[in-house]
Amino acid sequence: MRPYGQFCGLARAAEILGQRWALLVLRDLLVGPRRYSDLAAGLPGIPSNVLAARLKELEQDGLVAREARSGADRSVVYLPTRRAEALVPVLDALGRWGAADMRVPREGEVVTEAALVSSLRSAIQRDARRLRPRSTYQVTIADLTIHVAIDGDDVRVAPGPHPDPDLVIATGPGLRDLLAGAVGPEQAIAEGIVELSGDQTAFGDFVATFHVPYAST
Amino acid sequence: MRPYGQFCGLARAAEILGQRWALLVLRDLLVGPRRYSDLAAGLPGIPSNVLAARLKELEQDGLVAREARSGADRSVVYLPTRRAEALVPVLDALGRWGAADMRVPREGEVVTEAALVSSLRSAIQRDARRLRPRSTYQVTIADLTIHVAIDGDDVRVAPGPHPDPDLVIATGPGLRDLLAGAVGPEQAIAEGIVELSGDQTAFGDFVATFHVPYAST
DNA sequence: CGGGATCCCCCGAGATACTG
DNA sequence: CAGTATCTCGGGGGATCCCG
Fold this sequence. Notes:
The structure is a homodimer. By secondary structure, chain A is an alpha+beta fold. Chain A has ten helices and eight strands. In chain A, helix 2 packs across helix 7 (113-122) and helix 6 packs across helix 7.
């Protein structure tokens, strides 16, 4: 990591986070602890040596901790430190900014589990008017499944299915338009952007809970 | 700019802002319009070809606009677009995060005008209790001079001297401790971290207006 | 003199293979 | 499973040159 030679917080941040793949490694770790091979699988295209180098650097910079699990499963697990967790609101803001002119996947772009979870997390509107105080959702895109559990102001987004979702939503990249409000809930249903099963009256609540606008101009 | 191949706002942001020097070029432009040579001078160590390449890419990405000034001074000026301005709160947060474990300059690190202005801007506490509703300050570090004008909740930080400052503050990298609250106003005076001239009673107001904490642990 | 373009060198990323 | 080893290649670092 070549230094910028400036006594400046932004320059220091850029030295760490400007490294190739660094932001995405952190994004994945901030969704939950990951093993080396989890990370490799969740970051299609990352060269193995680059992943190893990033993890080593991020550990040295105090953002990532290695935990060697003992016992039957003696794999190595990487987890974010408190310093990395302090980045969550920053990465959320960065992600929303980047999403502002992201409407349709480019050729060959994929959606990963961490991308989906962190996108929805960054989109949470805690003050949204809700139809119901508690609700649970399961969202599927291609072969990915995540879930959302809302309890009052507490909104949780996490990987994997939900044991007992009120509503199951199957969708695709068109979800982006829905989050931006460019497509309303009824229109999304009508146009087949989403397929619902379960308590369909909860869908409005789901849509109101998340928002990531498009760039104004 | 090699794509990450993920349909994800953070990945899109990383493709643009993860480029070497990109964040610092934007930081400088967000302080004010700059000519090519202004940028080169404000970013010590940036290779000329890299600056040219970044500007071209940032223009293509819709973050930077070129404006060819006509008339006597027919220089080219670069300015941030609205899309770049939407980054201001994000870069502020990033800079504060980076500053959280930045206490002392590393060997050879310098302070630039844009670094100083944007650091102070990101540190503004709009809800700070003030001794006086209006006040103006001039801050000098080495050969750099910037100024601050406070009018109620309106706090402005800009390059250059102020025509009629209430208080002139000469300081150095020790300003970092002051912003973090690790050193109080009186202590800063006593230890020679700052040298004041003018209305010294305004110094407490100045200190209360800006805050960038150190990392907790 | 401002605003770049060009050249060469080298590091770090990409790709792939291989090992404890 | 968790990396290291090796090779290639594009882009950055540094200096110099060029053009209006």
